[in-house]
Design a protein that fits this description.
The complex is a heterodimer of chains A (202) and B (335).
Chain A lengths: L2 H4 L31 H13 L11 H7 L24 E5 L7 H10 L5 E5 H6 L23 E3 L6 H16 L24
Parallel strand pairs in A: 1-2, 2-3
Chain B lengths: L7 H33 L15 H10 L11 H19 L16 H9 L1 H12 L3 H32 L4 H8 L8 H17 L11 H4 L9 H25 L16 H28 L5 H30 L2
The chains are: A mainly alpha (202), B mainly alpha (335).
Chain lengths: 202, 335
Protein backbone atom coordinates (compact mmCIF):
# COMPACT_ATOMS: atom_id res chain seq x y z
CA UNK A 1 0.00 0.00 0.00
CA UNK A 2 1.31 3.40 -0.89
CA UNK A 3 1.07 5.00 2.51
CA UNK A 4 2.61 8.27 1.50
CA UNK A 5 -0.16 8.99 -0.90
CA UNK A 6 -2.95 8.41 1.57
CA UNK A 7 -1.27 9.52 4.75
CA UNK A 8 -2.62 13.03 4.92
CA UNK A 9 -6.24 13.24 5.98
CA UNK A 10 -7.89 15.39 3.40
CA UNK A 11 -10.54 17.63 4.67
CA UNK A 12 -12.87 19.19 2.24
CA UNK A 13 -12.82 17.17 -0.94
CA UNK A 14 -15.80 15.00 -1.54
CA UNK A 15 -18.03 17.57 0.08
CA UNK A 16 -18.01 20.27 -2.56
CA UNK A 17 -21.61 21.06 -1.87
CA UNK A 18 -20.78 22.33 1.60
CA UNK A 19 -19.92 26.00 1.76
CA UNK A 20 -16.80 27.02 3.63
CA UNK A 21 -17.25 27.18 7.36
CA UNK A 22 -16.90 30.47 9.15
CA UNK A 23 -17.84 31.17 12.73
CA UNK A 24 -21.53 32.00 12.66
CA UNK A 25 -22.99 35.38 13.58
CA UNK A 26 -24.14 33.86 16.83
CA UNK A 27 -22.42 34.81 19.99
CA UNK A 28 -21.85 38.39 20.94
CA UNK A 29 -19.85 39.22 24.00
CA UNK A 30 -20.96 41.89 26.41
CA UNK A 31 -18.19 44.21 25.29
CA UNK A 32 -19.61 44.54 21.78
CA UNK A 33 -23.08 45.75 22.67
CA UNK A 34 -24.06 49.32 23.61
CA UNK A 35 -23.82 49.90 27.38
CA UNK A 36 -27.57 50.43 27.69
CA UNK A 37 -28.17 46.96 26.43
CA UNK A 38 -25.54 45.51 28.72
CA UNK A 39 -28.04 44.46 31.37
CA UNK A 40 -30.32 42.89 28.79
CA UNK A 41 -27.39 41.11 27.27
CA UNK A 42 -26.38 39.81 30.68
CA UNK A 43 -29.89 38.49 31.30
CA UNK A 44 -30.02 36.83 27.91
CA UNK A 45 -26.57 35.35 28.45
CA UNK A 46 -27.69 34.04 31.80
CA UNK A 47 -30.72 32.40 30.22
CA UNK A 48 -28.68 30.92 27.42
CA UNK A 49 -26.12 29.54 29.81
CA UNK A 50 -28.72 27.83 31.97
CA UNK A 51 -30.75 26.30 29.21
CA UNK A 52 -28.32 24.61 26.86
CA UNK A 53 -30.23 22.08 24.80
CA UNK A 54 -27.96 19.55 23.08
CA UNK A 55 -28.72 17.79 19.84
CA UNK A 56 -29.64 14.10 19.93
CA UNK A 57 -26.97 12.41 17.95
CA UNK A 58 -24.03 10.16 18.66
CA UNK A 59 -21.23 9.18 16.36
CA UNK A 60 -19.42 6.40 18.23
CA UNK A 61 -18.72 4.97 21.66
CA UNK A 62 -18.53 8.41 23.35
CA UNK A 63 -22.25 8.72 22.67
CA UNK A 64 -22.90 6.08 25.34
CA UNK A 65 -21.13 8.21 27.91
CA UNK A 66 -23.12 11.20 26.71
CA UNK A 67 -26.32 9.21 27.28
CA UNK A 68 -25.06 8.17 30.70
CA UNK A 69 -24.72 11.86 31.53
CA UNK A 70 -28.50 12.12 31.34
CA UNK A 71 -29.12 9.10 33.54
CA UNK A 72 -29.66 8.64 37.24
CA UNK A 73 -26.20 8.77 38.72
CA UNK A 74 -24.91 12.08 37.30
CA UNK A 75 -27.99 13.67 35.66
CA UNK A 76 -27.24 16.58 33.41
CA UNK A 77 -30.83 17.79 33.91
CA UNK A 78 -29.78 19.42 37.16
CA UNK A 79 -28.35 22.18 34.99
CA UNK A 80 -31.33 22.22 32.63
CA UNK A 81 -29.50 20.49 29.80
CA UNK A 82 -31.45 17.25 29.62
CA UNK A 83 -33.64 18.49 26.78
CA UNK A 84 -31.96 16.57 23.96
CA UNK A 85 -33.84 17.95 20.96
CA UNK A 86 -33.90 15.73 17.87
CA UNK A 87 -34.26 18.60 15.42
CA UNK A 88 -31.19 20.84 14.90
CA UNK A 89 -33.52 23.84 14.62
CA UNK A 90 -34.25 23.64 18.34
CA UNK A 91 -30.74 23.02 19.65
CA UNK A 92 -28.09 25.22 21.18
CA UNK A 93 -25.29 22.77 21.53
CA UNK A 94 -23.78 20.16 19.28
CA UNK A 95 -21.82 17.46 21.09
CA UNK A 96 -19.49 15.64 18.75
CA UNK A 97 -19.52 12.34 20.64
CA UNK A 98 -17.21 10.09 18.68
CA UNK A 99 -15.22 9.59 15.53
CA UNK A 100 -16.06 11.71 12.50
CA UNK A 101 -15.00 10.09 9.26
CA UNK A 102 -14.83 11.64 5.86
CA UNK A 103 -18.17 10.28 4.80
CA UNK A 104 -19.86 11.66 7.91
CA UNK A 105 -18.22 15.08 7.70
CA UNK A 106 -20.65 16.69 5.22
CA UNK A 107 -23.56 15.42 7.28
CA UNK A 108 -22.41 16.83 10.60
CA UNK A 109 -21.46 20.09 8.91
CA UNK A 110 -24.93 20.36 7.46
CA UNK A 111 -26.41 19.68 10.89
CA UNK A 112 -24.25 22.46 12.33
CA UNK A 113 -25.41 24.86 9.64
CA UNK A 114 -29.04 23.99 10.32
CA UNK A 115 -28.80 25.09 13.94
CA UNK A 116 -30.07 28.59 14.71
CA UNK A 117 -27.69 31.06 16.34
CA UNK A 118 -26.37 31.30 18.97
CA UNK A 119 -24.87 27.83 18.86
CA UNK A 120 -21.99 26.09 20.53
CA UNK A 121 -19.96 22.98 19.84
CA UNK A 122 -18.37 20.51 22.21
CA UNK A 123 -15.76 18.10 20.89
CA UNK A 124 -16.05 15.07 23.14
CA UNK A 125 -13.39 12.39 23.27
CA UNK A 126 -10.01 12.01 21.66
CA UNK A 127 -11.34 11.11 18.23
CA UNK A 128 -13.37 14.29 17.97
CA UNK A 129 -10.52 16.39 19.37
CA UNK A 130 -7.68 15.17 17.21
CA UNK A 131 -8.53 11.87 15.57
CA UNK A 132 -7.27 10.07 18.66
CA UNK A 133 -6.14 6.52 17.94
CA UNK A 134 -6.86 7.05 14.27
CA UNK A 135 -4.32 9.83 13.99
CA UNK A 136 -1.76 7.58 12.32
CA UNK A 137 -0.01 7.49 9.04
CA UNK A 138 -2.30 4.83 7.60
CA UNK A 139 -5.38 6.86 8.36
CA UNK A 140 -7.39 7.41 5.24
CA UNK A 141 -10.88 8.31 6.34
CA UNK A 142 -11.02 9.81 9.83
CA UNK A 143 -11.18 13.57 10.25
CA UNK A 144 -8.36 14.45 12.65
CA UNK A 145 -10.24 16.83 14.87
CA UNK A 146 -13.70 18.26 14.29
CA UNK A 147 -12.29 21.77 14.63
CA UNK A 148 -11.30 21.33 11.02
CA UNK A 149 -15.00 21.20 10.19
CA UNK A 150 -16.75 23.55 12.60
CA UNK A 151 -15.62 26.03 15.28
CA UNK A 152 -15.30 24.16 18.57
CA UNK A 153 -15.89 25.88 21.91
CA UNK A 154 -15.09 23.19 24.46
CA UNK A 155 -12.84 20.14 24.23
CA UNK A 156 -13.50 17.21 26.58
CA UNK A 157 -10.52 14.84 26.59
CA UNK A 158 -10.83 11.16 27.37
CA UNK A 159 -11.27 7.90 25.57
CA UNK A 160 -14.15 7.98 26.25
CA UNK A 161 -14.63 10.77 28.83
CA UNK A 162 -16.71 9.91 31.87
CA UNK A 163 -20.23 11.36 32.16
CA UNK A 164 -18.94 13.69 34.88
CA UNK A 165 -16.55 15.11 32.31
CA UNK A 166 -19.46 15.83 29.99
CA UNK A 167 -21.17 17.79 32.75
CA UNK A 168 -17.91 19.59 33.46
CA UNK A 169 -17.82 20.48 29.77
CA UNK A 170 -21.32 21.94 29.96
CA UNK A 171 -20.32 23.93 33.05
CA UNK A 172 -17.24 25.20 31.22
CA UNK A 173 -19.53 26.26 28.40
CA UNK A 174 -21.66 28.19 30.90
CA UNK A 175 -18.46 29.85 32.03
CA UNK A 176 -17.68 30.72 28.42
CA UNK A 177 -21.11 32.26 27.90
CA UNK A 178 -21.48 34.28 31.10
CA UNK A 179 -17.91 34.58 32.32
CA UNK A 180 -18.92 32.84 35.54
CA UNK A 181 -18.96 29.22 36.43
CA UNK A 182 -22.41 27.79 37.17
CA UNK A 183 -24.14 31.19 37.33
CA UNK A 184 -26.89 30.37 39.81
CA UNK A 185 -25.78 27.78 42.33
CA UNK A 186 -28.66 26.83 44.54
CA UNK A 187 -27.70 28.20 47.94
CA UNK A 188 -24.51 26.23 47.85
CA UNK A 189 -26.42 23.03 47.30
CA UNK A 190 -28.46 23.46 50.51
CA UNK A 191 -31.70 22.53 48.76
CA UNK A 192 -30.21 19.67 46.82
CA UNK A 193 -32.08 16.39 47.15
CA UNK A 194 -30.76 14.06 49.79
CA UNK A 195 -29.27 11.04 48.11
CA UNK A 196 -28.00 7.79 49.51
CA UNK A 197 -24.32 7.24 49.35
CA UNK A 198 -23.47 4.76 46.62
CA UNK A 199 -22.22 1.54 48.11
CA UNK A 200 -19.53 -0.70 46.78
CA UNK A 201 -17.87 2.01 44.77
CA UNK A 202 -14.53 3.32 45.87
CA UNK B 1 -84.25 31.38 24.66
CA UNK B 2 -83.30 35.00 24.94
CA UNK B 3 -80.35 36.47 23.13
CA UNK B 4 -78.08 38.52 25.35
CA UNK B 5 -75.57 40.95 23.95
CA UNK B 6 -72.16 39.71 25.05
CA UNK B 7 -70.25 41.91 27.42
CA UNK B 8 -67.24 42.79 25.26
CA UNK B 9 -65.20 44.36 28.06
CA UNK B 10 -65.63 41.32 30.27
CA UNK B 11 -64.57 39.00 27.46
CA UNK B 12 -61.48 41.07 26.64
CA UNK B 13 -60.37 41.23 30.26
CA UNK B 14 -61.07 37.54 30.71
CA UNK B 15 -59.13 36.70 27.55
CA UNK B 16 -56.09 38.63 28.81
CA UNK B 17 -56.34 36.88 32.17
CA UNK B 18 -56.70 33.56 30.38
CA UNK B 19 -53.60 34.19 28.25
CA UNK B 20 -51.64 34.99 31.41
CA UNK B 21 -53.01 31.88 33.05
CA UNK B 22 -52.08 29.75 30.04
CA UNK B 23 -48.52 31.05 29.95
CA UNK B 24 -48.02 30.54 33.69
CA UNK B 25 -49.68 27.16 33.51
CA UNK B 26 -47.42 26.00 30.68
CA UNK B 27 -44.30 27.18 32.49
CA UNK B 28 -45.32 25.36 35.66
CA UNK B 29 -46.46 22.25 33.80
CA UNK B 30 -43.19 21.95 31.88
CA UNK B 31 -41.35 22.17 35.18
CA UNK B 32 -43.70 19.57 36.71
CA UNK B 33 -43.24 17.31 33.72
CA UNK B 34 -39.46 17.52 33.92
CA UNK B 35 -39.48 16.91 37.66
CA UNK B 36 -41.96 14.03 37.49
CA UNK B 37 -40.10 12.40 34.62
CA UNK B 38 -36.87 12.80 36.53
CA UNK B 39 -38.27 11.21 39.68
CA UNK B 40 -39.79 8.37 37.67
CA UNK B 41 -36.33 7.73 36.29
CA UNK B 42 -34.75 8.13 39.74
CA UNK B 43 -33.06 11.41 38.90
CA UNK B 44 -33.31 14.70 40.78
CA UNK B 45 -34.37 16.73 37.74
CA UNK B 46 -33.66 20.45 37.35
CA UNK B 47 -32.61 21.98 40.66
CA UNK B 48 -29.70 24.29 40.06
CA UNK B 49 -31.64 27.13 38.41
CA UNK B 50 -33.73 28.75 41.10
CA UNK B 51 -35.05 26.97 44.18
CA UNK B 52 -35.92 23.42 43.14
CA UNK B 53 -35.30 24.44 39.53
CA UNK B 54 -38.46 26.55 39.50
CA UNK B 55 -36.90 29.19 37.26
CA UNK B 56 -35.86 26.62 34.69
CA UNK B 57 -38.82 26.95 32.34
CA UNK B 58 -38.92 30.75 32.57
CA UNK B 59 -35.27 30.78 31.56
CA UNK B 60 -35.93 28.32 28.76
CA UNK B 61 -38.70 30.58 27.49
CA UNK B 62 -36.47 33.67 27.51
CA UNK B 63 -33.76 31.73 25.74
CA UNK B 64 -36.20 30.58 23.07
CA UNK B 65 -37.29 34.18 22.52
CA UNK B 66 -33.67 35.28 22.12
CA UNK B 67 -32.96 32.53 19.64
CA UNK B 68 -32.67 33.09 15.92
CA UNK B 69 -35.89 32.43 14.00
CA UNK B 70 -35.29 30.42 10.88
CA UNK B 71 -37.81 30.27 8.06
CA UNK B 72 -36.64 27.71 5.52
CA UNK B 73 -36.11 29.07 2.02
CA UNK B 74 -38.69 26.89 0.35
CA UNK B 75 -41.26 27.22 3.10
CA UNK B 76 -44.58 28.94 2.60
CA UNK B 77 -43.80 31.93 4.81
CA UNK B 78 -47.32 33.05 5.72
CA UNK B 79 -48.58 29.59 6.57
CA UNK B 80 -45.33 28.84 8.39
CA UNK B 81 -45.88 31.85 10.65
CA UNK B 82 -49.60 31.14 11.03
CA UNK B 83 -49.36 27.54 12.21
CA UNK B 84 -47.89 28.07 15.74
CA UNK B 85 -50.39 30.84 16.47
CA UNK B 86 -53.22 28.66 15.24
CA UNK B 87 -52.10 25.87 17.50
CA UNK B 88 -52.31 27.83 20.75
CA UNK B 89 -55.03 30.46 20.28
CA UNK B 90 -58.05 28.10 19.85
CA UNK B 91 -57.46 26.24 23.15
CA UNK B 92 -57.30 29.59 24.94
CA UNK B 93 -60.59 30.64 23.34
CA UNK B 94 -62.09 27.28 24.29
CA UNK B 95 -60.98 27.72 27.91
CA UNK B 96 -63.21 30.81 28.11
CA UNK B 97 -66.30 28.61 28.30
CA UNK B 98 -64.98 26.17 30.89
CA UNK B 99 -66.87 26.40 34.21
CA UNK B 100 -64.08 26.66 36.77
CA UNK B 101 -66.71 27.56 39.33
CA UNK B 102 -70.36 28.58 39.47
CA UNK B 103 -69.44 32.19 38.71
CA UNK B 104 -65.89 31.82 37.43
CA UNK B 105 -66.91 31.10 33.89
CA UNK B 106 -66.50 33.79 31.28
CA UNK B 107 -69.30 32.81 28.94
CA UNK B 108 -71.81 30.07 29.59
CA UNK B 109 -72.84 29.07 26.09
CA UNK B 110 -75.84 26.86 25.42
CA UNK B 111 -73.68 24.90 23.00
CA UNK B 112 -70.59 25.04 25.24
CA UNK B 113 -69.29 21.55 24.67
CA UNK B 114 -69.86 21.81 20.91
CA UNK B 115 -68.00 25.13 20.86
CA UNK B 116 -65.03 23.62 22.69
CA UNK B 117 -64.88 20.59 20.41
CA UNK B 118 -65.03 22.66 17.25
CA UNK B 119 -62.18 24.85 18.49
CA UNK B 120 -60.16 21.82 19.60
CA UNK B 121 -60.49 20.39 16.09
CA UNK B 122 -58.51 23.38 14.79
CA UNK B 123 -55.42 21.87 16.41
CA UNK B 124 -55.24 19.32 13.60
CA UNK B 125 -55.41 22.10 11.05
CA UNK B 126 -52.50 23.88 12.75
CA UNK B 127 -50.41 20.71 12.66
CA UNK B 128 -51.31 20.06 9.03
CA UNK B 129 -50.42 23.64 8.07
CA UNK B 130 -47.13 23.39 9.96
CA UNK B 131 -46.21 20.17 8.23
CA UNK B 132 -47.22 21.41 4.82
CA UNK B 133 -45.65 24.85 5.05
CA UNK B 134 -42.27 23.62 6.30
CA UNK B 135 -41.44 21.97 2.95
CA UNK B 136 -39.74 19.20 4.87
CA UNK B 137 -40.49 15.53 4.41
CA UNK B 138 -40.36 14.74 8.13
CA UNK B 139 -42.76 17.56 8.89
CA UNK B 140 -45.13 16.37 6.21
CA UNK B 141 -45.03 12.79 7.44
CA UNK B 142 -45.68 13.98 10.97
CA UNK B 143 -48.60 16.07 9.81
CA UNK B 144 -50.11 13.23 7.78
CA UNK B 145 -49.83 10.89 10.74
CA UNK B 146 -51.37 13.46 12.99
CA UNK B 147 -54.35 13.91 10.69
CA UNK B 148 -54.93 10.16 10.39
CA UNK B 149 -54.66 9.80 14.15
CA UNK B 150 -56.90 12.72 14.97
CA UNK B 151 -59.63 11.77 12.53
CA UNK B 152 -59.62 8.26 13.96
CA UNK B 153 -59.66 9.41 17.58
CA UNK B 154 -62.19 12.18 17.12
CA UNK B 155 -64.94 9.57 16.64
CA UNK B 156 -64.68 7.68 19.96
CA UNK B 157 -64.02 11.00 21.70
CA UNK B 158 -67.25 12.47 20.37
CA UNK B 159 -69.17 9.25 21.06
CA UNK B 160 -68.03 9.14 24.67
CA UNK B 161 -68.90 12.81 25.16
CA UNK B 162 -72.23 12.17 23.46
CA UNK B 163 -72.99 9.57 26.11
CA UNK B 164 -72.56 12.21 28.79
CA UNK B 165 -74.63 14.73 26.86
CA UNK B 166 -77.37 12.15 26.31
CA UNK B 167 -77.41 11.27 30.00
CA UNK B 168 -77.66 14.83 31.24
CA UNK B 169 -79.69 16.13 28.31
CA UNK B 170 -77.84 19.39 27.77
CA UNK B 171 -74.88 20.85 25.88
CA UNK B 172 -74.44 23.69 28.34
CA UNK B 173 -71.31 23.11 30.43
CA UNK B 174 -72.67 24.84 33.53
CA UNK B 175 -75.86 22.80 33.38
CA UNK B 176 -73.86 19.64 32.76
CA UNK B 177 -72.00 20.19 36.01
CA UNK B 178 -75.18 21.08 37.90
CA UNK B 179 -76.98 18.03 36.51
CA UNK B 180 -74.35 15.76 38.03
CA UNK B 181 -74.14 17.46 41.40
CA UNK B 182 -72.52 15.13 43.88
CA UNK B 183 -73.33 11.98 41.92
CA UNK B 184 -70.67 12.23 39.27
CA UNK B 185 -71.33 10.78 35.85
CA UNK B 186 -68.26 8.57 36.24
CA UNK B 187 -70.03 6.68 39.05
CA UNK B 188 -72.53 5.23 36.57
CA UNK B 189 -71.29 2.23 34.53
CA UNK B 190 -71.88 4.05 31.24
CA UNK B 191 -70.08 7.08 32.54
CA UNK B 192 -67.16 5.00 33.71
CA UNK B 193 -66.64 3.36 30.31
CA UNK B 194 -67.13 6.66 28.53
CA UNK B 195 -64.62 8.34 30.84
CA UNK B 196 -61.97 5.71 30.17
CA UNK B 197 -62.49 5.98 26.42
CA UNK B 198 -62.50 9.75 26.62
CA UNK B 199 -59.26 9.83 28.58
CA UNK B 200 -57.43 7.55 26.13
CA UNK B 201 -58.66 9.50 23.13
CA UNK B 202 -57.88 12.75 24.90
CA UNK B 203 -54.28 11.64 25.28
CA UNK B 204 -54.20 10.90 21.57
CA UNK B 205 -55.78 14.27 20.80
CA UNK B 206 -53.05 16.14 22.64
CA UNK B 207 -50.40 14.16 20.72
CA UNK B 208 -48.67 12.99 23.86
CA UNK B 209 -46.85 9.74 24.46
CA UNK B 210 -47.74 6.90 24.17
CA UNK B 211 -49.59 8.41 21.21
CA UNK B 212 -47.02 11.01 20.16
CA UNK B 213 -46.61 9.61 16.67
CA UNK B 214 -46.77 12.99 14.92
CA UNK B 215 -43.48 13.88 16.62
CA UNK B 216 -41.90 10.46 17.02
CA UNK B 217 -38.27 11.50 17.26
CA UNK B 218 -36.84 8.09 16.50
CA UNK B 219 -38.52 8.08 13.08
CA UNK B 220 -39.43 11.63 12.16
CA UNK B 221 -36.73 13.83 13.75
CA UNK B 222 -39.24 16.07 15.50
CA UNK B 223 -42.32 15.54 13.35
CA UNK B 224 -44.40 18.49 12.31
CA UNK B 225 -42.33 21.07 14.19
CA UNK B 226 -38.97 19.92 12.81
CA UNK B 227 -38.35 23.23 11.04
CA UNK B 228 -39.53 25.48 13.84
CA UNK B 229 -36.86 27.21 15.89
CA UNK B 230 -37.06 29.59 18.81
CA UNK B 231 -40.48 30.78 19.88
CA UNK B 232 -42.25 29.11 16.95
CA UNK B 233 -41.43 25.84 18.63
CA UNK B 234 -42.25 27.41 21.99
CA UNK B 235 -45.76 28.27 20.82
CA UNK B 236 -46.37 24.67 19.76
CA UNK B 237 -45.31 23.64 23.23
CA UNK B 238 -47.66 26.18 24.78
CA UNK B 239 -50.44 24.83 22.60
CA UNK B 240 -49.76 21.28 23.72
CA UNK B 241 -49.92 22.14 27.41
CA UNK B 242 -53.01 24.30 26.92
CA UNK B 243 -54.65 21.40 25.15
CA UNK B 244 -53.82 19.19 28.12
CA UNK B 245 -55.61 21.64 30.40
CA UNK B 246 -58.56 21.74 28.04
CA UNK B 247 -58.86 17.95 27.80
CA UNK B 248 -58.71 17.54 31.56
CA UNK B 249 -61.11 20.44 32.11
CA UNK B 250 -63.68 18.79 29.82
CA UNK B 251 -63.17 15.46 31.58
CA UNK B 252 -63.62 17.18 34.93
CA UNK B 253 -66.81 18.98 33.97
CA UNK B 254 -68.50 16.13 32.10
CA UNK B 255 -67.41 13.08 34.07
CA UNK B 256 -65.95 14.13 37.40
CA UNK B 257 -68.74 16.44 38.51
CA UNK B 258 -66.90 19.72 37.89
CA UNK B 259 -66.49 21.63 41.13
CA UNK B 260 -68.49 19.21 43.29
CA UNK B 261 -67.06 16.79 45.79
CA UNK B 262 -68.13 13.14 45.50
CA UNK B 263 -71.70 12.80 46.86
CA UNK B 264 -71.56 16.38 48.12
CA UNK B 265 -73.01 19.22 46.08
CA UNK B 266 -71.43 22.57 46.83
CA UNK B 267 -74.13 25.19 46.50
CA UNK B 268 -72.87 27.77 48.95
CA UNK B 269 -72.93 31.48 48.12
CA UNK B 270 -70.11 33.95 48.48
CA UNK B 271 -66.49 34.40 47.52
CA UNK B 272 -65.11 31.79 49.87
CA UNK B 273 -67.35 29.02 48.54
CA UNK B 274 -66.54 30.05 45.00
CA UNK B 275 -62.83 29.87 45.81
CA UNK B 276 -63.27 26.38 47.23
CA UNK B 277 -65.15 25.31 44.11
CA UNK B 278 -62.45 26.66 41.80
CA UNK B 279 -59.77 24.93 43.84
CA UNK B 280 -61.64 21.63 43.70
CA UNK B 281 -62.05 21.96 39.94
CA UNK B 282 -58.37 22.75 39.44
CA UNK B 283 -57.31 19.93 41.75
CA UNK B 284 -59.24 17.41 39.66
CA UNK B 285 -57.98 18.84 36.36
CA UNK B 286 -54.37 18.88 37.52
CA UNK B 287 -54.63 15.38 38.88
CA UNK B 288 -55.70 14.22 35.42
CA UNK B 289 -52.76 16.10 33.92
CA UNK B 290 -50.47 14.39 36.41
CA UNK B 291 -51.82 11.03 35.27
CA UNK B 292 -51.13 12.05 31.68
CA UNK B 293 -47.52 12.91 32.54
CA UNK B 294 -47.21 9.70 34.52
CA UNK B 295 -48.41 7.65 31.53
CA UNK B 296 -46.12 9.50 29.17
CA UNK B 297 -43.01 8.59 31.11
CA UNK B 298 -43.91 4.98 31.90
CA UNK B 299 -45.31 3.68 28.60
CA UNK B 300 -43.38 3.22 25.38
CA UNK B 301 -44.70 4.69 22.16
CA UNK B 302 -47.12 2.51 20.19
CA UNK B 303 -46.58 1.63 16.57
CA UNK B 304 -48.78 3.38 14.05
CA UNK B 305 -50.85 0.33 13.05
CA UNK B 306 -51.33 -0.55 16.73
CA UNK B 307 -52.55 2.97 17.33
CA UNK B 308 -55.17 2.83 14.58
CA UNK B 309 -56.14 -0.75 15.42
CA UNK B 310 -56.82 0.25 19.01
CA UNK B 311 -59.04 3.04 17.81
CA UNK B 312 -61.03 1.34 15.04
CA UNK B 313 -61.28 -2.14 16.53
CA UNK B 314 -61.61 -1.47 20.23
CA UNK B 315 -62.51 2.09 21.14
CA UNK B 316 -65.13 2.80 18.48
CA UNK B 317 -67.12 -0.46 19.00
CA UNK B 318 -66.97 -0.05 22.76
CA UNK B 319 -68.07 3.55 22.67
CA UNK B 320 -70.89 2.73 20.23
CA UNK B 321 -72.15 -0.10 22.41
CA UNK B 322 -71.82 2.11 25.47
CA UNK B 323 -73.80 4.88 23.81
CA UNK B 324 -76.54 2.48 22.69
CA UNK B 325 -76.73 0.89 26.15
CA UNK B 326 -76.98 4.30 27.77
CA UNK B 327 -79.74 5.30 25.36
CA UNK B 328 -81.70 2.09 26.06
CA UNK B 329 -81.25 2.59 29.80
CA UNK B 330 -82.54 6.14 29.59
CA UNK B 331 -85.55 5.02 27.55
CA UNK B 332 -86.33 2.06 29.82
CA UNK B 333 -85.52 3.37 33.28
CA UNK B 334 -85.67 7.08 32.66
CA UNK B 335 -82.09 8.14 33.41
Amino acid sequence: MDTKKIAKPILMDGCDSCPSIEPGPGYQTTAEVPPMLGAVQMLVDFCRANSIWPMTFGLACCALEMMAAGMARVDISRFGSEVFRPSPRQCDLMIFAGTVNKKMAPVVMRLYEQMPSPKWVIAMGNCAISGGPFCIEENYNVIEGVDRLVPVDIYIPGCPPRPEAVIEGVLKLQELITGKRNPLPQLGGALAPKREKPTGIS
Amino acid sequence: MQIESPNILLIVVAAVVMVLYVFTNSAVLVWVERKVSAHIQRRPGPFEVGPFGLLQTAIDGLKLMAKQLIIPGKADKRLFMLAPVLSFVPPIAALLTVPFGKVVQVQNLDIGILFILSLAALNVLAILIAGWASANKYSLFGAVRSVAQNIAYEIPLLLSLLTAVLWMGTLNLGELVDAQGGFWFVFTPFGFVAFLIYFVTGMAETNRAPFDLPEAESELTAGFHTEYSGMGFGLFFLGEYTNMILVSAIATSLFLGGYNLPFVTLNGEGVLWELIRVLIFLAKAYFLIFVMIWMRWTFPRVRFDQLLNLCWKVLIPFSLVNLAAAAIWIKAVGG
